Amino acid sequence: MRVATWNVNSVKQRVPRLLPWLDQRKPDVVCLQETKLADEAFTALLGEPLRERGYEAALFGETQWNGVALLSRVGLDDVAVGVAGAPGFPHVEARAVAATCGGVRVHSLYVPNGREPESDHYKYKLEWLAALRDVLEAGPADAVVCGDINIAPTDADVFDPEAYVGHTHVTEPERAALQAIQALGFHDVVRERWPDERIFSYWDYRAGMFHRDLGMRIDLILASASVAPRVKAAWIDRHARKGTGPSDHAPVIVDLDEAPDGDIGPVVPPPSSPGVKKKVRLPQSK
């Protein structure tokens, strides 16, 4: 079973990329984030093309902002939207949808950004993650957590740790919240498979960050202790970030039980840039 997660940053804008990508990579389960469409609009836009490709869809969307989806061609049972006990900001946002697909509980998540350390949105992010941990602890043993987690797990997951000082995504409380989820038995399968590689999933649109390979790894697939041993390949589909009209995120792909493309490396294709040669400031810091 091939499981993928992708922050598409507006599914309406990404249709010319999404449908060919589904045909190329043939994922069995797809978690989408930042769909930015209400459920009715999503269905009107993509319902028929997805049915033609054999996908059922579970949706939790809202107009203009947020929005998550879960596409499956291996079953879609016991659908749940939202995270029980999670706060809103101030109202509940469309950030989580879960279902059982092929016997595995799959969570498609768009974790709050946090905006600035110690801001109200940052506190909301930490409370949201704590509620998510409780849901996962009470959930079935066979599970995967997929999505834009908006946390770089370690300094190795950003192009330059010094550039991120004073910013969200890398603070100790955020990383501690992620570690609390992993402590339930969830494995960061991409990093475990490629412990020493330079791997990113997000590159800012500005300042040529993608072409210089100045990114972050904030899109994750975490597999429970019973599912992690089934992983045969785990990689970032960097090709989907190239070309015309891309999202600023690349898909993460994990193959369970068999790997149709083989164990092809951590990032496909690998970046041509050698990485950082001089100090770089984040575009938002300028």
Can you give a write-up of this model?
Helix content is 22%, strand content 23%. The chain is α+β, with helices and mostly antiparallel strands. It has a seven-stranded mixed sheet. A six-stranded mixed sheet has the order 5-6-7-8-10-9. Helix 3 packs parallel to helix 4. The chain is globular and about 50 Å long. The relative contact order is 0.15.
Outline the secondary-structure elements.
Layout: E1 2-7, H1 11-25, E2 29-33, H2 39-52, E3 56-60, E4 68-72, E5 77-81, E6 96-101, E7 104-110, H3 120-138, E8 143-148, H4 172-182, E9 187-188, H5 189-193, E10 219-223, E11 231-237, E12 252-256, E13 267-268
Parallel strand pairs: 1-2, 7-8, 11-13
Antiparallel strand pairs: 1-12, 2-4, 3-4, 5-6, 6-7, 8-10, 9-10, 11-12
Helix pairs in contact: 1-2, 3-4
Name a few traits of the molecule.
286 residues; alpha+beta; six-stranded mixed β-sheet; 5 helices; 13 strands; metal-binding
How far the N terminus sits from the C terminus, by CA atoms, comes to: 43 Å
Spans of at least 5 consecutive residues with low confidence: none
Mean pLDDT reading: 96
Spatial extent as radius of gyration: 17 Å
Strand order of the largest sheet: 3-4-2-1-12-11-13
Q: Please trace the helix and strand order, writing H or E for each element.
A: EHEHEEEEEHEHEHEEEE
Helices and strands: which structural class? alpha+beta
Q: How much β-strand is present in the residues?
A: 15-25%
Please describe the biggest sheet, giving its number of strands, its sense, and whether it closes into a barrel: 7 strands, mixed
Helix share bin: 10-25%
